[in-house]
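We modelled the chain as a single entity of 115 amino acids. Its sequence is:
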Amino acid sequence: MAEVAAERRAFEEALQAAIDASDLPRQDEELVAAWDELHPDGDGDEDEARGGSGRPARSLSTMDAFTKMPYDFSPARLRSMELATDFMVWGRPRGERASASRIPRPGRSRRGAAE
């Protein structure tokens, strides 16, 4: 499981580096600015078109969005997400292969995690 989390972290770092090196952030800002120009806030008629809910007509509630998630929260997935978070916070010791015994757990120091 620790190896999968380490691979996920490496992939996410490479993906973020590719995004940062590309022109995507600027293009994204331009797209948002163009959308804002075409859809200015503050129109009184919009709330009536939404049925008075205060949300855009096609938006979902938090619960609806949660139930449409394409994955489950199995113990393996939760552990993988936990390990990926640990790698992001603590990093993996250089030159060492990832193992569950070296990953710090909440409430334990790095020294205690390696013992």
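As a brief sanity check on the tokenised model: Residues 2-114 form one domain. The chain has a mean pLDDT of 71.
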